[in-house]
Amino acid sequence: MWAQQAKPKPPVAAGAVAAPRPKGKLSQEPAQYILDVQAMMASTNNAAAKASAASLQQLWASNKLTATQQGTIVAVSQQMLEKKYRPRPHFESLFNAVLAGANQNLSDQQMTELLGVIAKAVEKEDLLTTEKFLTNTAQFLNTKTLYRSRYNNLRVVGGNFTFAYNENDNPLPAPPRPKLVAPTPVPVAKTEPLPTTPAAKPAAKPKPAKKKSNDGWDTADLWDSGSDNGWGNDDGWGTPKKKAPAKAPAKTAAKTPAKAATPVKAPEPAPEPVFVDNSSYDTYMAPPTRGPVLIIKDADLLMATPGDSIVLRKTSGIVVPGRSSFVGQGGQMAWTINNNPVTADMTSYDFDIAKAEFTAEPVTLTYPAVLEAPVEGAFSYKSVKKKPGATDSGYPRFISLTNDARVKNLGDNIRYVGGFSLAGSKMLSASLDGSLSRITVEADGKTKFAATSRAYVLGDSIITAARAGVTIYQDKADSLTHPGVKLKYSKRGQVLQLNREDGLYKTTPYYDSYHQMEIATELLTWPIRTPLIDFSMLTAKNQVTASFESKEFYTNTRYQQIKAINKLHPLQMVVGYSQTHGDAKTFTVAQMAADLKVKEANVRSAVSGLARDGYVAWNASTDEVTLLPKATHYVRSSRGKKDYDHIAIKSLSPGGKNATLDLNSNDLIVRGVDRFNFSDDSITVYVKPDSSTIRIQKNRGVLFNGTVVASAFIFKGKEFKFDYDGFFIDLVKIDSIIVKGKNSKGSVMKTRKDTDFALTNKKKSSSGKLYINDPKNKSGRKRLGAYPSFDASTGAYVFFNKPEVLGGAYDTAVYFDIPPFRLDSLNNKNRSAVGFKGTFMSGAFCRLSKPS
User: Fold this and answer.
1) What segments bear the compositional bias annotation Low complexity (predicted)?
2) What gap in Å lies between CA 294 and CA 39, rounded to an integer?
């Protein structure tokens, strides 16, 4: 205990006659000093200033101040005069602070401490800092308010307080971090690796770098669920970009290079993103706390505005009036979402006491109704006006450090592992390190689809994402994948909808590993309790087609379009770099730019365009590029080192769905197909299906009814099936074969016009195989004279009962009987070379056989 000091003798009574000191002079004798104060404050002609002097005179006479304390006040006043402090507001603030301490019955020790802090502030601080401390001290002691305005106020409830002068920046020691009981974090991509996706191990976390108190994570960009703006500067995943801190920039930890992914053996690599740990966790570093301060311990902070209020319970901290800041340690904020309790336990944080907002990092969020275990991350509160129609203001907000949150009660058969964030009552999946979150949906004991995204909105009835990589499972080995689409999943209806997003992947097709095709369409709809997945177009359905292309499709026109105005062909650039570096499949933009002596920005722009079209996978946060098979296919095909095909099926369906994938049979039913070709020469072999409908089967097999045209030969029938590997059409049920006659134009015999003739089936139908080209020459690059060729497994009849044959003189008794036969070179322009062995039946004469 401090020793009780002797009280001074009573000064001259108030109102006693004494010669006033000249203006600007204050006596060093306490008795005269108080009289000089009256004269000085009276000279201001301000009622408040004169009232503060009068109250001080009463306190002076009340014997509540010790002689030492009075001496300190006199000495401080002398220093203030030397530094040209004015009676108002400076001396008035000094007197009000002293009066507030006395009115709140500060102990002698507390009053002495307060006066000692004031003395050091006057001695060492500038006028503005001292004035703020004096004003805030008076306000706090009188009302327990740290800040007050017509818009907001900050009040302290309970707890203890002391005043101090910090010679150095020495905040309170950090309280012990709460121990989390969350399960060990598991990278999203390793939770259940997609069979068509290379898996990647997360890079080792770098050592944390200290950061300033506010790193700008709570920005509109982070909470905006809309997509970004296109290729050239898009990473394909809408990575949250931190704004520059308002204070001195924090040190950045060195990045640890991500290890190359080890591919999982699969039928075809799909460009689905995998988790890449690309951010270090910035540890908190408090702002300066030097100078006169108020230290608060185990108190509640009430932050209130006309429309909102919060309480931060059981916190401690340092109020630095000169910087208008509160540097806090510990404490908890509690609130409810849909009547469910939520708490955020703070460790270290700071905020501007003049604003109804603050952020804290790290914090531990506990939300028993939603989270299996507490989650560590960052917290933000801001008092904002609720928008019309909104359920809340969008605050408080929380964002997890990484993707280790396990959300429960998300819905039947929905498993979620990833980031977790809150914006008011809205649940999202963002995380501070930008890592991906994964949703897996099951039904009937099977995994139906999985999706990864940085920005899910986890609603009560609907889950949405502005951009998500999606995998739909067809069977154990095959899947339908897309690297970035808008996702909407109705939990009640169990309906998945995927739509084109507005950024990098706007025109990227789906990859179908079962059918070995790329599917370019705008909307995918799948009620997951049914086996039917529908594909359709939304824009100008009577003009814009859906596209179904073989994975081996190639055209030189498209290859040249990729180059556009670039000096270097982007595909040649990435494939060439790979080949000159040991066929490396993974490398960075920086490595490639340095090797090719090209600006990184130019390489990055080219790479993003290639990612859009499915030639590479690109992670902009690490600038890592992964070469996909489509890239090498196009480059090698352009150089004549690889075979390719021309299978590109267009679907125009104004009245409904363009295609339906039946998961029971795995048939892809495509509608609105007028015709499709098997070569770049559309005259050689093409198909016109009946009802404009075909069925695409495993590995680009096509089942259809209709017409096959192979140059001069027209085959009509049912159950025709195209075999991709053999590159032939199995004409299972041929109704008729028409051989077109050659007209006079271009004919050797210009005066004669040949007529068409038909080969009629001997039975209800005949069959055969049409060999389009050599299976190793699907591109038709090599001109092989034997193709197309037709091998009939059954014979045919040729009837002569046509009007153009002798005016229709013959009836059906006259015909030509053809046994099973084979025709080569159907594209031969010399039609006279087409001949058949067989037997002529005249109806009157004996059979006449044509030798083979």
Assistant:
1) 1-21, 189-203, 223-239, 246-265
2) 32
Read off the amino acid at residue 171: P
**HSE of 319, CA atoms in CB hemisphere, 13 A:** 28
Is a pLDDT exceeding 70 seen at residue 796? no
> What pLDDT is stored for residue 200 in this prediction?
37
Distance CA(344)–CA(397), nearest Å, equals 10
Q: Rounded CA gap, 130 and 132, in Å?
A: 5
Between the CA atoms of 143, 145, 151 and 152, what dihedral angle is there, to the nearest 10 degrees? -140
The answer on pLDDT for 421 being more than 90 is: yes
SS (H, E, C) 234-293: CCCCCCCCCCCCCCCCCCCCCCCCCCCCECCCCCCCCCCCCCCCCCCCCEECCCCCCEEE
Residue 653: C-alpha distances to residues 501, 610, 678 (Å): 22, 29, 22
Helix (H, G, I), strand (E, B) or coil at 786: coil
- Spatial neighbors of 104 by CB under 8 A, at least 6 apart, are 141, 142
Task: List the structure tokens of 775.
Answer: 């299976």
Structure tokens that stand for 257 in this block: 């290079």
How far is residue 296 CA from its own chain's centroid? 42
Backbone φ and ψ for 192, nearest 5 degrees, come out as -155, 90
> pLDDT tens-digit profile of 588-599?
999 999 998 999
Give the pLDDT confidence of 363-410 residue by residue, as tens digits: 999 999 999 999 999 999 999 988 888 888 999 999 999 998 999 888
Cα separation, 250 vs 681, in Å, equals: 63
Give the integer Cα–Cα distance in Å for 278 and 252.
12
Please list the residues that pair with 109 across neighbouring strands. none
Nearest to 330 by CA among 158, 165, 160, 172: 172
Amino acid at 355: K
759 DSSP β-pair partners: 737
Residue type, 430: A
* Contact of 740 with 764, CB cutoff 8 Å: no
User: Are 623 and 605 spatial neighbours (Cβ–Cβ below 8 Å)?
Assistant: no
Cβ burial, residue 200 (10 Å; 0-12/13-18/19+): buried
* Cα–Cα dist 98/55, whole Å: 10
Give dist(CA 410, CA 184) in Å, integer.
21
Task: State residue 602 phi and psi, 5-degree precision.
Answer: -70, -40
Cα gap 625→585, rounded to integer Å? 8
pLDDT score of 285? 82
For the record, the structure tokens of 446 come out as 């099977």
* Residue keyed to tokens 């006066």: 115
Question: Which helix or strand (DSSP H or E) is residue 315 part of?
Answer: strand 308-320
406 forms beta bridges with: 417
Can you tell me the distance from the alpha carbon of 427 to that of 404, in angstroms, rounded to the nearest whole number? 15
Mean pLDDT, residues 224-230 taken together: 37
The C-alpha torsion from 65 through 71 and 73 to 75, rounded to 10°, is: 180
- What's the pTM value of the predicted model, to 2 decimals? 0.73
Secondary structure of 127-188 in HEC code, one letter for each residue: HHHHHHHHHHHHHHHHHCEEEECCCCEEEEECCEEEEEEECCCCCCCCCCCCCCCCCCCCCH
